[in-house]
Design goal:
Length: about 375
Amino acid sequence: MSDAGDDAQGGARGGGEANRNAGDGIRATAPGRATVPLSVLDLVTVGAGSTAHAALRTSVEIARLAESRGYHRHWVAEHHSMPGVASSSPAVILAHLAAHTSRIRLGSGGVMLPNHAPLAVAEQFGTLEALAPGRIDLGLGRAPGTDGRTAAALRGPGRLDEAADEFPRSLAELTRFLDDDFPDGHPYARVHAVPGPVQGPTRRPPLWLLGSSGFSARLAGELGLPFAYAHHFSAAGTLPALDLYRQTFRPSAVLDAPYAVIGVSALAADTDAEARAQVLTGALSMLRLRTGRPGLIPTPEAAAAYAYSPLEREFVDSWLANVVHGTPDEVRAGLDDLAERTGADELMLTTNAHSGAARLRSYELVADTYGMPVEAPVAD
């Protein structure tokens, strides 16, 4: 570990009463007949013929449904320059979701830290914590959440590789800003993130590290932080990353044992045919993204009519093999099997399809098949 990593570890382990309570909301109880807690990962997808306004409205509906059915948290992922995704500003979206919910945890899945100044992130999430006390998670990623050209536009020329390599230092700096505990003599000792501790006792949002490789898995383990792995787009690395996280885990003031979430692509529908039609829209969208042709999520009709080349068909079939989809009973069996194989402590379901109605229906059907409780949503 670098000195910067040790500094971040010190922040995770100390920092007063506010930090000793920082683990609140990380662990959860499995709802209904689910074997592990279930949560939502939201990309705010935009379908062909729809708008970002409609996609954001669907995100509110999903958050309210998730809250009323016992999903533990609703996270929003940062992506840029992708027409089919409207989640470029997680903090803004989370503030909107906080205004329409009252119980469910809300967080970033994640904020791509190299794209931002640590002070700016501390201020954004300090504001969110002030808006929704005790309900905010701060998930942090090391990737740009986009292509290299867009990352350069976000960060400035020449900073792409440099910013990724400085992730441990940026994490340590962010932690110091959140705790307002730079040591005397540090250049930032008199710089305060507000809202924050300088204004009085506050609770730091739990920090999570996100990743699709071993780098963040190891760092999360060494710092004693919770870890979220992107199984939904990097399934081959799931078990090695989780093993590395558990092997390197060191207890901290945040956690006394590892806690691992995995993101899972999942879609339930009333029939197999409908589920297949919906997940194919997401697969074609991913194919276009991977081949430099990003666009809005295609309709089921467009996805069914697309003339796939043999290589494209191979990619789509491989992609769909890692999407848990089908009838509610089939999805439940697939999720249970995945939880058992990986030992994940929580599953975070991302449901990407052309229509918001299909996404909403999927989360509802998953809740039904697990017998998750039904609570009335809180009125706006």
